[in-house]
Amino acid sequence: MRPRPLPRELRARAFDVRAADRAGVSRERLRRRDLVRPTRSLRWHRARPPIGIDRIRAFRPVLLPRQFISHTSAAVLWELPVPIAHRDGPVHVTSRLPAAQPRRTGVVGHRVEASRAAVRDRWGLPASALATAWVECGSLLSLDDLVVLGDAIVTAARCRTTIDDLRAALEQRGRCRGARRLRAALALVRSGAASPQETRARLAVLRAGLPEPELQVEIRDDRGRFVARVDMAFPRQRVVVEYEGDHHRTDQHQWATDVRRHREVGRLGWVVLRWTKSDLDDHLGETLAQLRDLLRERA
């Protein structure tokens, strides 16, 4: 027998048992297989699972006083880049001492001294502040993923967080899991990376022993008039590196803008290298060799 349709207000969102009670949904209906039970007392429809921010927000009813969203789950709430396994994995919830560590299916529980917790409201949920969330991720993410996350935090104007803020949060946390990796990542974090792949491109350049490129460089003509802003550049050699995601190809307006911009930059004597995901994933050696030769020729 097909299950009875849910009330309209519950069909397209996650809900808790209390919301189901108010809508007149029986407990027997909540046990039907078309509903997913991510954790005790929560449900959502199997055909319409919440994703990203909405999935984290679904856990609001199960948060107790002195608990907040933390670690990579807080990064998702702040709309920051984390690996997909962490975006779709268990939700991280931290309790401020002396509250007990959360223990429930679908949740990874943590505890922290109240003096070390920095909590902000995000999408109606208490969540770790940006710099604190970055430090929390030190025990979960790789070095490169921490640099990607750090670059995003200090670059996005909406985050209002600096490299000094990251450093202060790390110093305040003191001894913690991943501290050595966090210190190494902090030395590599830069403001100006517009995407995770731009960060990974910069790290590849550094690890090849090449000079560090400048980020978000303004190029002007001989009269000082603005011509373009580019992702990465080596101004002394007049070499530009642009990472082009797939939207540069599929968006006709973006494609036309890129062509005009690169033409103007080339007219001023700059060489533009256009890198794609394939250049970094499948042909990295050749890509870096070309850059090395070009920098040598134009030194």
Description:
- Strand 9 and strand 10 form a beta hairpin.
- 40% of the residues lie in helices and 19% in strands.
- It has 299 residues and is an alpha+beta fold.
- It has helices at residues 8-11, 17-22, 27-30, 52-57, 71-77, 84-87, 130-136, 143-155, 163-173, 179-186, 196-207, 247-250, 252-267, 277-281, 284-297; strands spanning 15-16, 35-36, 42-45, 67-69, 91-96, 107-112, 119-122, 125-128, 214-220, 226-234, 239-243, 271-275.
- The longest helix has 16 residues, at 252-267.
- Helix 5 (71-77) packs antiparallel against helix 7 and helix 8 crosses helix 10.
Q: Low-confidence stretches at least 5 residues in length (pLDDT < 50)? A: none
Major β-sheet annotation: 4 strands, mixed
Kindly name the structural category: alpha+beta
Strand order of the largest sheet: 9-10-11-12
Number of helices: 15
Binned strand content: 15-25%
Put the structure in a nutshell.
By secondary structure, the protein is an alpha+beta fold. The protein is 40% helix and 19% strand.
Secondary structure: elements and pairs:
Elements: H1 8-11, E1 15-16, H2 17-22, H3 27-30, E2 35-36, E3 42-45, H4 52-57, E4 67-69, H5 71-77, H6 84-87, E5 91-96, E6 107-112, E7 119-122, E8 125-128, H7 130-136, H8 143-155, H9 163-173, H10 179-186, H11 196-207, E9 214-220, E10 226-234, E11 239-243, H12 247-250, H13 252-267, E12 271-275, H14 277-281, H15 284-297
Parallel strand pairs: 5-6, 11-12
Antiparallel strand pairs: 1-3, 2-3, 4-5, 7-8, 9-10, 10-11
Helix pairs in contact: 5-7, 7-9, 8-10, 8-11, 9-10
